[in-house]
Amino acid sequence: MVDIAVMGAGSFGTAMAKVFAEATRPEPHRVTMWCRREEVAAAINETKLNASYLPDTVLPDNLCATHDPEEALSGVGLVVLAVPSQSLRENLAAWSHLIPDDVTILSLAKGIEIGTLKRMSEVVCEVADVPDDRVAVLTGPNFAKEIAKRQPTLAVVASVDEARAQRVQYLVRGDYFRPYTNSDVVGCEIGGATKNVIALVCGIASGVGLGENSRAAIITRGLAETLRLGTALGAEPLTLAGLAGVGDLVATCSSPLSRNFTFGSRLGQGMTLVQAQAAASGQVAEGVKSCISVADLARKVGVEMPLTEAVRAVCYDGVPVSNAINDLLNRDVGGE
After folding, report:
1. Residue 234 is labelled as binding a ligand
2. Which residues lie below 8 Å from residue 53, measured CB to CB, with a gap of 6+?
3. Is 286 annotated as a binding residue?
4. Fewer C-beta within 10 Å: the chain N or C terminus?
5. Is 117 left (phi over 0), alpha (psi -120 to 50) or beta?
């Protein structure tokens, strides 16, 4: 049995806290979920429901919640970071001194930090002042609602320390959650960050009434953008052909369960960025912010990412969706 802290109580944090609580190794872990709002923690403990994010999911008895980060992190054997990518630095700065020595820190966030252009594992290493071999990331085609329903799910646990990746794999594997390990942290994180942006493009296309041909083209060219950026940063192409790349990309670009796809669809239907954010009811579409940092990172390393640039133009430069689509269609074509 291991005491596990899940820092964040959104949809995915709650679903993964449930996975850890239901993974018996050889007896159930004790899982404590940190909640930003004290009333949410109290409600979870009283009702075993997170009504704000997964209202139909009853949480296990060995999962509790707290608003106190010190209580959550005291004596734990694994720390799971489940806050949005752009707020990870701020949150971790407040907790890092509470994390026990030599404990593995597992990041669930998918994104590139605006300004620093750092991947999430790099942010963790910098803020928590830990070497990269203490950090792991979990990624893949993982929708919170399906995980919460115990539907079969594959994932990737990546770390430069193979033993740590295997340890996390052991702790999280269950009857319905099957994780694979990988040492290519760069590839896994780039795949997770870019797919959110490409899903916005697919959503926009759906919102304006484009069909499956267009979606297939966007996914394929989006993968090409991801491969160009990933390999420029040292990622292994095979990583991006696997669960962390193609798997996550296809799922996020094809399902209404995807917050990024849904957000993009609203933009395609004519909503402004502010209107689409209001309609999201507090759910974070990571690609809306990641399009800024992913585009900046691509420019920094000299990689062309026209789909990503188009999302940024629509969201932040006031470019109408129709103009962005026309610009993409009027690009020169060459060898694939």
Report:
1. no
2. 9, 10, 11, 14, 144
3. yes
4. C
5. left
CA–CA–CA angle 263, 266, 270 (5° rounding): 145
pLDDT reading at 25 higher than 90: no
State yes or no: is 149 an active-site residue: no
CA dist., res. 231 & res. 178, Å (int):
27
Average pLDDT taken over every residue of the chain: 94
Q: Which of 18, 48, 145, 195 is catalytic?
A: 195
Instruction: Give the integer Cα–Cα distance in Å for 56 and 15.
Output: 12
Closest CA to 193 of 262, 116, 119, 136: 119
What is the number of H-type helices and E-type strands within the chain?
16, 8
Q: Is the pLDDT of residue 333 over 90?
A: no
- To 5 degrees, how large is the angle CA 278–CA 55–CA 39? 80
Question: Percentage of the chain with pLDDT > 70?
Answer: 98
Q: Is 311:286 a contact under the CB 8 Å cutoff? A: no
Residue of 88, 162, 98, 155 whose CA lies nearest to 125 = 88
Per the CB < 8 A criterion, the answer to whether 156 and 110 are in contact is: no
- Determine what percent of the chain is predicted with pLDDT higher than 90: 87
> How far does the chain reach from its first CA to its final CA, in angstroms?
51
What are the pLDDT digits (tens) for 77-126? 999 999 999 999 999 999 999 999 999 999 999 999 999 999 999 999 99
- pTM to 2 decimal places: 0.94
Query: Is 53 annotated as belonging to a binding site?
Result: yes
As a whole number, mean pLDDT of residues 130-144 equals 97
Q: DSSP letter string over 132-164?
A: GGGEEEEESS--HHHHHTT--EEEEEE-SSHHH
